[in-house]
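User: Hey, my collaborator sent me this sequence without any context and asked if I could get a structure. I don't really work with proteins. Can you help?
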Amino acid sequence: MANSAVHPDQPLTTADGVPLKTALSRALRRDKMKSLALVAPLFIFLGLTFLVPIGDMLWRGVEDPIVSTYLPKTVEQLKQWDATSGELPDESTYEALVEDVKAGAPEKLITRVGKRLNYELPGMNSLFRKSQRRIPKFDEGPYKEAVIKVDKKWGQLETWQVIKTFSPNLTAGYFWAAIDLQVTPAGDLQLQDEKSRIYLKLFWRTLYLSGLITLMTLILGYPVAYLLATLPLKTSNLLLMLVLLPFWTSLLVRTTSWIAMLQREGVLNDIMVALNIIENENRLAMIHNATGTVVAMTHILLPFMILPLYSVMKTIPKSYMRAAVSLGAHPFSAFFKVYAPNTIPGIGAGGILVFILAIGYYITPALVGGTSGTFISNFIAYHVSVSLNWGLAAALGIILLGLVLVLYLLYDRIVGVDNMKLG
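Assistant: No problem. I've predicted the 3D structure and written it out in structure-token form, which is a compact way to encode the shape of the chain:
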């Protein structure tokens, strides 16, 4: 009879003679490729809708090619000029300016330079508009005196200093402006005048009000989530429907409803006057200020706190409380020492969700916030759609993103992201 035993040194093979180790590697590789193919559409979608816009925002925050694009010859001549010498550029620089203006005047490209530099030095927009109309009429030099006659600002040092300072294709000027700093015409860094310092206050207000809104949703949402988790199923389902009801109503409708409720002649003031809580002459201003923002956004974001809390509370065995009470603990003591600590993951999940959503809101603060209740997101939207200063909008967005990441890392360091869950 033939010996069918396998020799110890002989590698195991499959039926077709392929080494077993190689066959297993191929099978694992095929499984990984199939898994990658299944998740590839999601990765592509996230890349196109999340990573690409963030990358574009990061780039716009430092990109500044306008001056060098539309005044190329002038920028080249200014490289040889010492901005701290106290003397105006020479005749060749003015000649280069005339050539650049003549080249860009037919398509009105020079006004783009004026609009960009007007963010740094007021009056530059009108200067370039006037120059675009008059300088193309020059036939021959010398140009220095002729250009200065067009507008006396061409004879001022700060005009040329600003052009040279913002002639590079990359700039940090948008980021300095986003934290209430400015680059002077001489190239120095200094605080903006007091009336123009708005962004640091807005960042602080955004973080403060978002934190307050998160706290309010926790105070209001915790008892509701507890009821949802402990009441009989029929009653809790009805209550859950009421919690989800705002999701089926337009955000604009909910916000405008609070305007009707909170205004001086609104429902709440009328009720308080009717109950003699306040005098008719002393009606409360609860709208178009920070109060209106907090009230409206607490109502809008409340479900985002309740649902994570409810999902965690639902997993806590009811026997914990009964065991603590049976061992002699007071119901309140048992709740705060046994039940509440088990809900911390839900508090963390709901808190982060509400806080991040609150930071990014701009429709509700714009409608009910007035001057004291708007967020930094409102000014980002303003610069994107109204002033068209996309560079400053990108810088503000990047700083806001950085603040959120820092707060997230602090939360991870203090509480731990591993302790956050949704049930």
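In plain terms: The chain has a mean pLDDT of 86. You can pass these tokens on to your collaborator as they are.
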